[in-house]
Design a protein that fits this description.
Protein name: DUF445 domain-containing protein
Transmembrane segments: 54-76, 96-118, 332-349, 355-372
Structural class: mainly alpha
Helix content: over 70%
Organism: Gracilimonas halophila
Strand order of the largest sheet: 1-2
Keywords: Membrane, Transmembrane, Transmembrane helix
Number of domains: 2
Number of helices: 17
Distance between the termini: 92 Å
InterPro entries: DUF445
Amino acid sequence: MSKEPNSNTFKEQTKQYGRQLWELIQNQVQKHSSSEETVPVKYIPPKKTTEHPWLMILLLSVPYLLLVVFIVSFFWDFNNMTADLFGHNFSFEGLLRIVSVSGLIGFLTNWLAITMLFRPTHKRPLLGQGLIPAQKDRIAYRLARAVSEDLINPQIIKQKIHESQAIAKYREKATVYVKNIIDDPEFRASLKVLVVSYVDEMIADPEVRSSIAKKLMEQIDDAIEENSFEKVALRAYSFLKGQEMQDLVESALVKLPTGIEHGLNKMDTFLDELPAKLDEHGSVIEEMVTGLLYKLINQLDVHALVEDNLRQYDEKKLENLIKNASNDQLKYIQYLGAVLGTFGGFIIWEPVASILLLAFIISFTVMADILIQRLKK
C-alpha cells in the first residue's frame, strides 16, 4: 500500500521540476528571441485602378442621361424634323425614344445579369437563386480541385522545400540559436541549481530514498549471473546483514547531491560540445526532419482543406470576395451596356449610316491603341 503514495509523490515532484525547467528554457528563448530578425512584411499587390478616372465618371452619368432623354421624348422628339445628307433623307422623328430605350435596355440587361450572379442569395419560389450561391458547392469543389492539382499539392510542396534548402537553413539557425542560449552563464548557473535542487529534494525524502535503494539492489541482483559466486556472496551478505545493506545504499544516496554538484562541471563540457555535435550530425538531423515533414505532407489533404473552408463561406462573404477582386471591371461591363445599347439605338434608326460610323470609330480606336502601344515601347 505504501508504494502508491511514494510513486505519486515522486511523479508530482518530478512534474514540478519539469515545469521549472520548461520555464527556464522559455525565459531564455524569449530573452534571445528579442534580438532575432523580424519577419519581412509580405508584399500585397495594389488594387488596379483605371488610368482615366474621368472615363468612369462619364460612364456613370450615361444611364441617368438616357433616363432624362427618355422622359424628354414624351414631350418632344424631333417632331417632323428631317435632313438631307449625301443625297439621303434622314428623318429624326422618334430618335430620342429609340436611342434612350436601347441604351437603358443595354444598361439594365447588364445590371440584371451581374446582379443575378449573386442575388437572390437564398432560393426563392419564383425568383430562383443567384448563380454563384446556387453553385457554391460546385464552385468550392472545382476551385479546391484546381488548387490541389495545379497550385498546392504534396509534390509541389516537397519540390519547393528541396529547392529552397529550408530545412538545412533552419537547422543552421537552430544550432546558432541553441549556442546562444547554452553560452549564457545565467542559463548554465540556473540549470545547475535546478538539477542539484531536484536531486537533493528527491534524496531528502526518506520514502523516495528507500524506494531508489530497493530498486538499485534489485538491479544489482538481476545484473549478477545466477548461481555465480558473486550472486551467492550477495545473498549471503543480505541474509546475514539484512537491513544494514539497505542502510548502506541509502547512506550512499544521501551523499549523491554533493557528488553531483562536483560532477556538474562536466555539464559545461557537454554544453560546449553540443553545437559541434549538432553540426556533426547535421545531415542525419536534416534527413529525420525531412522524413517527418514529408509524412506530414502526405497526410495533408489539400483538396478537402480548401473545399471545406470554401463551403463554410456564407453567400455574402463569397459575394464580397469576388466583388473586391473585380468590382471595377463589373461596373465597366454594366455601364458599357448603356453605351453599346445607345449605339444599337442608332443602328435601329439608320442601319447603314450607323454601322459605317461605328466601324470608323472602332477602327480609329484600335489604330490609336496600337500606335500608343508602339510609342510606349
